[in-house]
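Hey team,

Sharing the XRE family transcriptional regulator run so nobody has to redo it. Sequence (183 residues) first:
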Amino acid sequence: MTETLGPRIGAALKRERNAVGLTVSELARRAGISKATVSQLESGVGNPSVETLWSLGDALGVPFARLVDEPPERVTLIRAADAPRIGSAGSSYAAALLSSSPPNARRDVYLVQAEPGSPKNSAPHTHGTVEHVILISGTALVGPAASPLLLHPGDYACYPGDAPHIFDARDDGTTAVLISELR
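Structure output:
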């Protein structure tokens, strides 16, 4: 196992166990492995076999890859000019995939209309909430309250919704699509 894989597996295992509300003991029982093994793995030590990771994934109801994949970046910014577009053969239409939906995710989609002068400061939402914003018109400071990103029309940003965040319109008639996702 590489030096970074152990801590990555440990963090993923703990995150997924907490997400479904299992104790270490209950996860171990469901996976058919010892409690000590689960504790070691969650602390980033141990050398799990493929079979152990499959058993843990099955017990958690998540795919094996969820326990070993690199975690996604907490903040993503795609400028409109940089979005990879795929055009249509029969019309003047192009699409850019900005974020694919993870399995079993819940997403709510909003059209945001905002004016300058009164920023929307949001308290943290439910643990695991991620927000995606695509700015349609105007400019706005959007994202983590401590380090918001300046968005222009067509820009995309993704940031933790389970931490303080802000939407601060800088121009009259600012509009955006906001997608709130619970992972």
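The CA atoms of residues 57 and 143 lie 32 Å apart.

Ping me if you want the raw files.
A.
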